[in-house]
Amino acid sequence: xxxxxxxxxxxxxxxxxxxxxxxxxxxxxxxxxxxxxxxxxxxxxxxxxxxxxxxxxxxxxxxxxxxxxxxxxxxxxxxxxxxxxxxxxxxxxxxxxxxxxxxxxxxxxxxxxxxxxxxxxxxxxxxxxxxxxxxxxxxxxxxxxxxxxxxxxxxxxxxxxxxxxxxxxxxxxxxxxxxxxxxxxxxxxxxxxxxxxxxxxxxxxxxxxxxxxxxxxxxxxxxxxxxxxxxxxxxxxxxxxxxxxxxxxxxxxxxxxxxxxxxxxxxxxxxxxxxxxxxxxxxxxxxxxxxxxxxxxxxxxxxxxxxxxxxxxxxxxxxxxxxxxxxxxxxxxxxxxxxxxxxxxxxxxxxxxxxxxxxxxxxxxxxxxxxxxxxxxxxxxxxxxxxxxxxxxxxxxxxxxxxxxxxxxxxxxxxxxxxxxxxxxxxxxxxxxxxxxxxxxxxxxxxxxxxxxxxxxxxxxxxxxxxxxxxxxxxxxxxxxxxxxxxxxxxxxxxxxxxxxxxxxxxxxxxxxxxxxxxxxxxxxxxxxxxxxxxxxxxxxxxxxxxxxxxxxxxxxxxxxxxxxxxxxxxxxxxxxxxxxxxxxxxxxxxxxxxxxxxxxxxxxxxxxxxxxxxxxxxxxxxxxxxxxxxxxxxxxxxxxxxxxxxxxxxxxxxxxxxxxxxxxxxxxxxxxxxxxxxxxxxxxxxxxxxxxxxxxxxxxxxxxxxxxxxxxxxxxxxxxxxxxxxxxxxxxxxxxxxxxxxxxxxxxxxxxxxxxxxxx
Length: 761
Hints:
There is one protein chain. By secondary structure, the chain is mainly alpha-helical. It folds into 4 domains: about 5-35 and about 65-140 and about 145-225; about 250-350 and about 360-420, no CATH class; about 425-590, no CATH class; about 595-720, 3-Layer(aba) Sandwich (Rossmann fold). About 45% of the residues lie in helices and about 5% in strands. The protein has helices spanning about 5-35, 45-60, 70-80, 85-95, 110-135, 140, 150-180, 190-195, 205-225, 230-245, 290-300, 305-310, 320-340, 365-370, 385, 395-400, 405-420, 425-440, 480, 485-500, 515-520, 525-540, 555-565, 580-590, 620-625, 660-670, 680-695, 710-720, and strands at about 260-265, 265, 470-475, 505, 550-555, 575-580, 600-605, 630, 675-680, 705-710. The strands form 3 sheets. A 4-stranded parallel sheet has the order 4-3-5-6. β7 (about 600-605), α25 (about 620-625) and β8 form a beta-alpha-beta unit. α2 runs antiparallel to α10 (about 230-245) and α20 (about 485-500) packs across α28 (about 710-720). The chain is globular, with a radius of gyration of 30 Å.
């Protein structure tokens, strides 16, 4: 151990002390700040399923690998950071003594091979991630880049440290070999041994390279300790906790049911709620739970949510990534004020700090943040156009590799705006009034709920007080009862159930809106009113049935989701299936037998609340196949399917900014050159039909393209209808006036859809 080694070693230790203190202080500050959020005891357990999910997600990179050509590189970097930390700490000894290595394991061939792989993998992974970021830089792809709005300096800093760390691991090992300190087998050091043979023998080089390896990590610790909003760095630690404390303890994404409206860590009881004491949604950043603050802190700014967001991809101001980062920056800027005890009431008056000079010692920037509205078009953290552009489709939540719960946070802000501020798009006024007074968004009379069945050639049973041998309650839904296009779906399903001999009944005038549009629009009070009314009705219908035998079939994906996932919290335990699931089962059981295959080219649009929110992907596709249609898949399908634009109560709001989402989706569907676009949700059917009509008016779609429900395709295949006899000497062609479901409509020869961005843009 010479003077140089001692000097460099002391320098390394001195810098490390400063860096570790700064980092430790940063951890302490971050924990204090995250705890400013509201309590949420629902995240505490059970331990087993949560730790299993954590291990699976980080070890196998199950969520990161949703972008398959990014996941492997990040996997290398992650393990390089975790296990490579042992090699990094080894540098403390190597700066003082070039011959130093870990006792026992330091000479093991397996350890030498592992460090070789970690060093090489870290370098390659860091370079690959930097290259991906550069290739998809916003300057090259404008809004289509998922990195638009991300902090590139912070990202490149982190990636540079990763690469230097990897080079340091390989460099120290190579110089040890060149200096004769180590002589490993080639299979354990297939890069560093050949490199060591051409490097000069120098123990000083070992020390210097070890110091570089050490200092790069210390600089990283110091910088991130000072910059608590550097999510691209902090996620290395916080992601583990964010995954463990995710909403669904079974490992599922935070989709399906919305998070209940919470106050003080408990679901809010409207009968006892006090607006002056209880939290109604999120009107200030401190109204979010501590898990919300952890979400904000964990965002890596990778932009996967942004790349999948239908609003962002059609020119709207909403980016799920930017919503989270804006909330993060605001939260951390406001934190000194909150930590000092600051608090404002609903009128904006200070109630937390008192005295002659209550703001003494609080940073002026923190006070400025405390005066900002959380939502507002005049200096608010989140612009109203951003808040109300969300369709709650869940694409952001589905893609986030660190399990951030964007939709829950957005709806919490909507709840405050609706119930406390009464500040929401004017179009929602009519919908809210119709739901409250008429029990449906269209304002139709309950007595007309059975009009859809008027001219059917069989009787549709309406519940009359006794279920008898009825197997299913058929939940028609508001759209299925009142919307002309959705009525066709209702009729098709009723006829198929009749053909299959399924015993079912409907509620008729007793049915009311499930409350989905009210809840997604933020009117939780109205949702509770409607839901409790429905649960009371349904429980009375099924009062003689065991919980496992209370079966409901629904054609609306939104009704299906609400009945299945949200009513249990209100005492409604039912076995709910979507009509595509039931019909597919009936086909498999040969109770529905397609006898007249349709000759159409069909593409299928996944409804968000059927697909992403409830993972029903295969049943409707199998039904399309069973109908005999030629199936054509859109580029964005399954869990990456693009929204139709109707969710989140957007069905009742005007779309004034950017390209219409339904037109964008129709353009993609037309790109498969279909004769029919099939779906499994009345909202989707309305939006897609409007989009097709718009494109037909533009001359960009064939007049023969139409939007149908999957059940209509199946009905056409199951129910053979008599065809007119062809005249002698002529070929049998579909009659021009025949049912369009029976005709073999010509397809477009040339795709007309818009070009799509690659998955990494």
